[in-house]
Amino acid sequence: MAAFVPPALRSSPPSPPSTSKASPNLTPDSSMAPAATNGIITPPPEPSTTPISTVELCIAHYNEDLSWLSPFSANCSIYSKGKQPAETSIYARFKHLPNIGRETHTYLTHITQNYDSLAHVTLFLQGNIHDINQGTPAHTDLTLAELVSAALRLSPGAVLPVGVSATFSDFDGIQYKHDWIRRRGHALTRAKLTPRDFWSWMFAGTADEKVPMTEVRFVQGACYAVTKEAVHRRPREWWGRLLRYFEELAETNPEEGHYMERMWYAIFAPDVAVVVQRREGEGNGGRGGDRDGASE
């Protein structure tokens, strides 16, 4: 895939809502990711000869039990925003971060601080990808060993979405389910920008310049295996600008973090994640996965 470099970035103050369309059976492009079965991404069967040392696990931790990481603890960079685990020396890296920006802030911190020394493949994962969280389903039913094995087989520039696939097309505002708001939305800080404006701010440098948008693919939970070449499609300055946005928001649960859950795949793999232009007259969709409770 040809390298993707965004337009020149212009300064813009932080302030980037939107709706989702769930597509449980959507399969990402086979050139970038394995096939999906019932919406769950499954790795190909071929064994890998790539050294395990070339894979790093970036874990967005809060208070989750991290024992599930034990087989690969030496490959883990733990970024904790909650209680410190009892044992931290077993990990390659342990850092405590302020509890802001959800997993987005964690991932961006890792990328910007390690941009020139990223592992061949980084698995971006949340604190426990197998937990059912307040009625929200697990991110994946694959074991950690299966995920690492799949990551080891990625070729340069490739991206592997891990989890239940969906599409997002309602860029004018996420319509949250009442049940999700009741269970998990009380701490949500609403964004000043719509998802469309936030997207424009990211890719065009300003929310005033509207970037034509149709639909993007993503996986619920923002769990991906990403090669360093995919990260390097965008310069460190681009990533740093996005990190500063969330640092300046300084919110624990900003709505922009939910936007980013829907946009990570498009950032890492635009040729695959951004769906072709919608034909004139087609509707906007609007169904959403249960993870963020978008309306169905």
From TrEMBL:
**Annotated region Disordered: where?**
1-49
User: Pfam families recorded for this chain?
Assistant: DUF3431
Q: Where is the composition biased (Low complexity)?
A: 1-24
Q: Identify the domain of life.
A: Eukaryota
Q: What is this protein called?
A: Uncharacterized protein
The beginning of the lineage is: Eukaryota, Fungi, Dikarya, Ascomycota, Pezizomycotina
